[in-house]
Specification:
Helix 1 packs across helix 2 (37-51). The longest helix is centred in the last third of the chain and has 17 residues, at 167-183. By secondary structure, the chain is of the alpha/beta class. The protein has a four-stranded parallel sheet, with helices on both faces. It has six helices and four strands. The chain has a single domain, classed as Rossmann fold (3-Layer(aba) Sandwich), CATH 3.40.50.
Length: 187
């Protein structure tokens, strides 16, 4: 966790676990997804797998997080809402010292990286502060010919799947399960 650990520590952790999984499972039987910062980490992990020549998982999910950060409306109004100055382009905490143009940090910076993504599920909500990032990532994946599914929930915020007690969260869980069930092979 930042600030004790900085980029690429989390991606390195995912790669270490993924390498162990590949010893037991075929990549077509592996799916990876993350929520919020975990959605961003999922995309960074795919970029790192590509960089290291690892086979990609069969499918990924980016829930309330995506392959780029602070894009679209979020860059313009999110900073004011969250108290950050995005225009200063100063990485904070985890990304301090990282090259923010590097596709290992922001996969959306590279069409080449993004065009190699496995089938991708993107989920967000109309009141999610990360909605613009999710839409931007989905649009980029579709433009590049990647199988990408965008699911949006009306009236929910960033907490969509974190609010496990709501019917909307349960519905989102069902979408996630069906997506991975469809895209993953048989063990």
């Amino acid at each position: 966790m930042a600030p004790e650990h900085r980029f690429p520590a989390a991606s390195e952790d995912v790669v270490a676990v993924y390498r162990e999984l590949l010893k037991v499972y075929k990549p077509e039987n592996i799916g990876i997804y993350g929520y919020s910062a975990g959605g961003v980490l999922t995309s960074q992990s795919v970029a790192t797998f590509l960089e290291e020549g690892l086979p990609l998982p069969a499918a990924i999910g980016m829930i309330a997080g995506a392959a780029g950060e602070w894009e679209g409306d979020l860059m313009h109004i999110g900073g004011a809402l969250a108290g950050f100055d995005f225009f200063a382009e100063q990485p904070v905490d985890y990304f301090e010292g990282a090259d923010m143009t590097n596709p290992l940090v922001r996969p959306s910076n590279s069409d080449d990286v993004m065009s190699q993504f496995p089938p991708s599920l993107l989920i967000s909500s109309t009141r999610d502060f990360a909605l613009s990032n999710v839409i931007h990532t989905h649009r980029q994946l579709v433009r590049l010919g990647v199988n990408a599914d965008l699911q949006l929930w009306e009236g929910m915020g960033h907490e969509l799947i974190g609010a496990h007690y709501t019917p909307e969260a349960r519905e989102a869980y069902d979408v996630i399960v069906k997506f991975f069930d469809y895209h993953l092979g048989n063990p």
